[in-house]
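Table S2 (continued). Query chain:
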Amino acid sequence: MKEKHEWLYRAIRTFIQAAIGYAAVVLPTIDWNNTSALKTTLVGIGVSAVSAGAAAVMNADWNHKEG
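Corresponding output:
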């Protein structure tokens, strides 16, 4: 039941999971009066994106042949 673009679905799902995990742990502890809070948040989102990219590469079907 492997779809042609299942790796993309998995990458998006991994990004969402990593972003939610990051938000659940870090957002309650951020001092929003601190100007570095935005930077910290963006770094966390970047880590989520890297996780999703790694998942995409690991789940891509590089030998897929249509037929």
